Amino acid sequence: MAINLTKGQTIDLRKNDKGETFDLSQVTIGLGWDVRQKGGGGFLGKLFGGAQEEEYDLDAIGFLLNEQGKIANMGRQFTNSNGRQVNMYEGDVIYFNSMRHPSGHIWLTGDNRTGAGDGDDEQIIVKLDSLAPTFDRIVFVVSIYQGRKNNQHFGMIENAFIRAVDRSGKEIARFSLSGDATFNGMCSMTFAEVYRKDGTWKFRALGEPHPTDNFVELLGKYR
Amino acid sequence: MAINLQKGQRIDIGLSKISLGLGWNPHEGTGYDFDLDASAIMIDQNRVIPEEEYFIFYGNTDSPDGALHHSGDDPTGGNSDGGDDETISVDLAKVDGRVNEILFVVTIHEAAARRQNFGQVRDSYIRIVDDMTGQEIAKYELGEDFSIETGVEFGRLYKKDNHWKFEASGLGYREDLAYFLAKYYKGQIIK
C-alpha cells in the first residue's frame, strides 16, 4: 500500500492544457519500458556474452470498478481450448486469460502492435464513451510475470511510461514512471487510472509499486 | 470578531461544521509559483490513519465517512483574490468512530527544489472558521509566524468525552508533506 504525493499528474482526457480536444470514442492506454542491462557490460563483457538482455514478461491488467470502487463481476471458471482451467473469465478484470470484456468496449491487444501503438509494449484499448454508466473507474496494473522467481523487479526497468492516445492517434498524455529506488524489489505496479468526473473522463498516473508479482493479490482492495 | 488562539490554547467546538481556509497571493516575479497545500490527517487511537483514504489532501479530496471535503488543489494561489484558495470543510457529526483526532498541516509543494519558504509568500494565512457562526477561531499569518519554514502543523481537532475541541499548535518545520504523513502512516509514501 502506498500514498502518492506527486502532483500534476491528473489531466482531463477531453482536452489538454493547449485546449486541444480529443476523440474519446476510443482511447488506447499504452505501456512501454526498456529493460536495464544487468552488470557484466563493457567491451570484455560483450565479447564473452556477459550482458545478455534478459527476457521480461510484463502483463498489463485492467480492473473495471463501479461507483463503490469495487469489481462487480469477477467472471467465471472456463476450460480453454488447451484444456486448461481459467478463472475470472469474461468478468470485469481484463488480463491475459480474459482479454476482451463481455461488453466489447475494452480489450487487451496482447502482443499485437498496430501503427497507433508505436513503441507500446502492451496496450489496453477502451471505448470510454460506450462504457455502461455503472463503470466509474478503470485501474491499470502492470506486473512482471514470475518476477519473484526470476529475481526481476521494477527497479531494473528504465524508461517506463504510460500514455493515452485518442481514436485519431493523438497522444493525450504521457507519463514517465521510472528511475526510482523505491521500485527496487517491486514486481507489480498500479500504473494509472481513468475515472469519471463532472461528466468527463480524467486520467491519472499513479506509479504505485507493490512487492507481489501476482495481480490477483491486488484485487482484495476492489472486492 | 476573530478569536486568535495562542499556541497551545484550546477551545470547545462541539459537534458542528467548521472550515479550514488557506489563502495566499500568487508570485509576481518570474520565479516559480508558490504552491501551498492544505492537508488533514485523520488519526485513530493507535496514532495512525485507519485507512489511506483518511488522509485528505490534493490527491484525495473526500474522506470515506463524508466528514471532510477538500476543495482541490490550487497550484498558484490564484483561486481567489485575497480570500481562501484551498479549503477543507469538516462536518464533525459524520466523523468515523475510529477517528479521534484530525490534524491540519500546510506545506509548500517542492519547497526544497524551488528553494522557497513561507517568508517569501505574500499574504499567506491559515485559519479555521466555525461555519455555524462564521466566526474565525484561529488564524496564523504564515509569512510572519513561520518565515523560514516550509511546513506548519496548524492545529488539531480532538475528541474528548464525545466532544470535539480544537487546539492551535502553530509548529513550524523545515519539512514537506511526506514528513507529516510518515508520522501517522506506516505504508510507502511516493514523493
From TrEMBL, chain A:
Can you tell which superkingdom this protein's organism belongs to? Bacteria
- Please name the InterPro entries in this protein's record: Stress/Tellurium_Resist, TerD
The UniProt keyword set, sorted, is: Tellurium resistance
Give all residue intervals belonging to the TerD domain: 1-221
Q: Which GO terms describe its biological process?
A: response to tellurium ion
Family, similarity comment: Belongs to the CAPAB/TerDEXZ family.
Can you say what this protein is called?
TerD family protein
From TrEMBL, chain B:
- The source's superkingdom equals Bacteria
| Species whose genome carries this gene | Mucilaginibacter mali
- Name of the protein in question: TerD family protein
Q: Does the keyword tRNA-binding apply?
A: no
Biological process (GO) annotations? response to tellurium ion
Q: Check the record and name the InterPro entries matching this protein.
A: Stress/Tellurium_Resist, TerD
Upper classification of the organism: Bacteria, Pseudomonadati, Bacteroidota, Sphingobacteriia, Sphingobacteriales
Transmembrane regions: none
> In this protein, which residues make up the domain named TerD?
1-184
Pfam families per the UniProt record, alphabetical: TerD (PF02342)
> Keywords in UniProt for this one?
Tellurium resistance
Question: Is Transit peptide tagged as a keyword?
Answer: no
Q: Where is this region: Disordered?
A: 66-87
Q: Which PANTHER family match?
A: CAMP-BINDING PROTEIN 1-RELATED, STRESS RESPONSE PROTEIN SCP2
